Amino acid sequence: MAGRRTSLSRLVTPPNIEEMNMQTGKLSGRVALVTGASSGIGAATAAALAAEGARVGLVARRRERLEALAKQLRDGGGEVLPIQADVTDEAQVDRTVETVLSEYGRLDILVAAAGVGVAAPFQNTTPAEYRQMIELNFLGLLYGIHAALPIMKRQAGGHIVIVSSGTGRYIHPSTVYSGTKHAASAMAESLRREVGKDGIRVTSIEPGAVKTEFVSHMRPDVRQAVEDRLGDMEQLESEDIATAILYAVTQPRRVNVNILTLYPTQQA
Ligand SMILES: NC(=O)c1ccc[n+]([C@@H]2O[C@H](COP(=O)([O-])OP(=O)(O)OC[C@H]3O[C@@H](n4cnc5c(N)ncnc54)[C@H](OP(=O)(O)O)[C@@H]3O)[C@@H](O)[C@H]2O)c1
């Protein structure tokens, strides 16, 4: 384990494990599946879980990014499995969960980090954009939970971590995106009440601005407006969110961390 810690902590960007000051082995024997693992918060979280000894399924559409992360983590002693999938397709999500189960034999932690946002007012959001946000941020989330829950119930335990957003709790100028994240946060709390009796924990992670590729996927005019709004404010790093997720999933089984909201210190 000491070897695993040393080599994983030498990994360079992305993700920056050096900053994470981790213990090792807390997740030994556990199996995790992380959607959105090809970049940003998902990649940093996958690395953090692997560094703590979890075997991790890495899910996203960009195969080469997943392969690169997998190599980096394996070189550092991690045990990971890249799986290319589009999480807006229910059949692909089912196959992903089946692949993790057949490879690793169980599923303890689902981190649903795949997401997209067009942070614009409603009148500057196209139907194609709002369909994409609903299909990925909400339906994609539901497909993953639907596939994971029966396994976690059979195991009499599991942890579902939903990467929602601060805009899923507070109102920011990002109407439909905010709506999908409010839906995600609301269902997280409702689901927690439903499945706690089965030993399954549910955590909603609600960050403010995090420095990832997220904004780069927006339309140029929307991206410019967001960048103008953020200015030179120091944003959160993906590793800050991964650290929060690691905190939630390494608590004793009796502890359900319901909601973690993290904002850049300077964000209003
Ligand atoms: N960055 C922020 O300021 C911020 C703040 C609050 C909450 N969040 C939330 O944090 C989560 C992660 O975002 P991020 O900031 O890390 O952004 P990011 O770097 O753009 O990551 C988004 C991830 O989602 C994956 N993805 C997108 N569409 C997908 C699909 N159809 N199927 C499977 N995977 C898909 C992407 O991989 P592929 O393109 O390879 O599929 C990528 O790995 C999102 O849910 C986002 O809403 C972000």
Brief digest:
The protein is an alpha/beta fold and 268 residues long.
What is the topological layout?
Elements: H1 2-8, E1 31-35, H2 40-51, E2 55-60, H3 63-75, E3 79-84, H4 90-104, E4 109-112, H5 127-155, E5 158-163, H6 175-195, E6 200-207, H7 220-230, H8 238-249, E7 259-262
Parallel strand pairs: 1-2, 1-4, 2-3, 4-5, 5-6, 6-7
Helix pairs in contact: 2-8, 4-5, 5-6
Bound molecules: NADP nicotinamide-adenine-dinucleotide phosphate (NAP).
Residues 35-42, 60-62, 65, 86-88, 113-117, 136, 163, 165, 207, 209-210, 212-214, 217 line the site of NADP nicotinamide-adenine-dinucleotide phosphate (NAP).
Describe the protein in words.
The chain is an alpha/beta fold. The protein has one domain: Rossmann fold, CATH 3.40.50.720. It is built from eight helices and seven strands. The protein has helices spanning 2-8, 40-51, 63-75, 90-104, 127-155, 175-195, 220-230, 238-249, and strands at 31-35, 55-60, 79-84, 109-112, 158-163, 200-207, 259-262. It has a seven-stranded parallel β-sheet, sandwiched between helices. The chain is globular. The termini are far apart. NADP nicotinamide-adenine-dinucleotide phosphate is lined by residues 35-42, 60-62, 65, 86-88, 113-117, 136, 163, 165, 207, 209-210, 212-214, 217.
Helix content: 40-55%
Shape category:
globular
CATH topology label? Rossmann fold
Q: What series of H and E elements makes up the topology?
A: HEHEHEHEHEHEHHE
Q: Count the strands? A: 7
Let me know the average pLDDT: 92
Which distinct ligands sit in these coordinates?
NADP nicotinamide-adenine-dinucleotide phosphate
Q: Calculate Rg over CA atoms.
A: 17 Å
CATH architecture: 3-Layer(aba) Sandwich
Structural class: alpha/beta
- Largest sheet data: 7 strands, parallel
The fourth-level CATH homologous superfamily is: NAD(P)-binding Rossmann-like Domain
Q: Which strand order do you get reading across the main beta sheet?
A: 3-2-1-4-5-6-7
Could you list the spans in which at least 5 consecutive residues all have pLDDT below 50?
Answer: 1-13, 16-23
Terminal CA distance: 41 Å
Strand content: 5-15%
CATH class: Alpha Beta
Query: Given the structure, what is the number of helices?
Result: 8
Whole-number count of domains = 1
